[in-house]
Design goal:
heterodimer; A: alpha/beta; Rossmann fold; six-stranded mixed sheet; four-stranded antiparallel sheet; about 35% helix; about 30% strand; B: alpha/beta; nine-stranded mixed sheet; about 40% strand; globular
Chain lengths: ~250, ~425
Amino acid sequence: MSLEIKNLHVRTEEFEILHGVDLTIRKGETHALMGPNGSGKSTLANSLMGSPAYEVTAGSVVLNGEDMTEADPDERARAGLFMAFQYPATIPGVSVANFLRMAMNACRDEPIKVKEFGQELGANMDLLKIDREFTSRYLNDGFSGGEKKRAEILQLAMLKPQFAVLDETDSGLDIDALRIVSDGVNAMRGSELGVLIITHYTRILEYVTPDFVHIMLDGRIVREGGPELADELEDKGYDFVREEAGAARAADAG
Amino acid sequence: MPADFVEERRRAALEVYEREPVPTWRRSGFWTTHLRGLSLDDLEARRYDAVGSLEELPDVVTDALPDAGELSGLIVQRGASTVHSWLDEAAADQGVVFTSLERAVEEHAELVERWYMRRLSFEEGKFPAATAAFWTGGAFAHVPRGVRLKRPLQVVYLIDEPGTAQYAHTLGVVGELADCSIREYCLAPDFDGQALHAGAFELYLEPGSRARLAHLQDWGAGEVYDISTKRVEVARDAHCSWVPIHLGGRLTKQRLDIVTAERGSDMRHTGLYFTEGSEHLDLFTTDLHEQGDTTGDTVWKGALTGESRASYEGLIQIERGAQNTHTYLQTHSMLLSPGAKGDAIPSLIVETDNVSASHGGTVGEIDEEQVFYMTTRGISRRDAVRTLVEGYFEEVVRRLGDEALEAIVRERIAAKLTAAEEQVVAFTAER
């Protein structure tokens, strides 16, 4: 069971952003995708979910052997793919609880029983240290940055996807919130979930240790390795990757 | 004997009516409201016998009414005739008057004369003059000093035949320190053909009183024209929460004014509309502060489908000397089809200093980012769009403060969205 990204080329109306990305995540694995701002990380996350803002011009996204490249976002979600948004949309007039129930029912054949829903919600809110009154607020309406991120992880916990992409979930979190969110993600890790953590910083990786680290630069993955690669990046910064990639390209050209 | 003060006004109003041409309302930009499609001469007042039981009334009325046990009083006017009039005995014992205006003019002449058309004038135009000249039936509510009514007083104006002209006048007075809820529903079943409702509504809140006022208009799919003026005056330290709701009508031209007339008066005004097909809705509201230390809070939200047109203009007016007034107005309009056109215009006239008055207006469409977000949770585009529109209204519906009405509004909006679902989903997907 895997999420395979094969030679993915993605463009906006103006220009191409991803120039052939290959990345395979198997269930049970946690991958980190790192890179400086503008390298294409969020574009990859959004195109994995089928965002209408992007066009896939070549390559494919394959989920458990099924080609999802042309699928609508809701089909991908129902097939087990999830993204925690960097900037989640506000849904006025729809409470957190109602939204969660609607989303869970969309992903299952039989509507969830009220009692079962309440129990799961309670347990996951305890896990993420979220106040009970939170569930009656309109989703993301007037939420602080930290509350939005927690609401994203709460959805992840409730929807139980097979593969989760966390797009800059760590950005804008103070250290306490980062720890709570990381603990939540760690609790969900296991043989039934593949995770792709997208981040600019190595901070979250101190709490959620990845099995694999990929570094993206200018729409390509330029380095791959184990968790030690994140440490190397922490020491040397992105400039070293950039120089290395530049040297490699120069060598190719030569 | 009909009272002289009514007859005199009828005569004077008739002169204005005959003198004035059928109006066309123009405003800057594309907006014009005209009555060229209305065959006024083919309409007539229609008389009906009183009903023995409410079950004899069309479903649009019985569906919208709660059990009698949940009301303090009910008046139903069908066409030109009052066909049902009831007031809870306990309320009557407390001195509450709730009867047709026609009867009140005979039985409570002095009381009616003190208030009748105090803030309405037949000089305002052809249709206000028509209503003042031709009204029949009508409703009169008087809640005396200190009386608190737990359950609403409800008035229903029903048009259930094409060719009907209905001239309606509701007058309400809430005495000092009294507290009550008043509902006025304007309803019609779907029929083929034209009808007119020309309405006048006036409500006076005496010092220290509180009132919750709801107007629900749902004229169905027939060609019902509604040209009405509704005005509420809030006296010293009184509070009025007013919720006008427009859910249907071929053409609606209404003026809705709320006046905080004395110090300490406070109002909250929450409006909602949903237009479809070829409906045309033209609303002008005024939040008028005549004295200082008054407060106001106005929120209007609407959505448009089909080829419908909806214009909302909300004016905040703070008169000279009305210092230390604090008020706020916001209006939003959501376009749900390529053929719909709408505007949302807040405006401001301030003739004094030391006030706070803020306002804002937007016309928008469904936000594609919100749709994408919801679909990434497995929710279909169709359900996402529906949920977003219902959620957009939910913020206003929650302010209505009347559970029975909230249920009607939610159910009607859901039904209208279902009817327009294909075009709404197609419209949001196209962009």
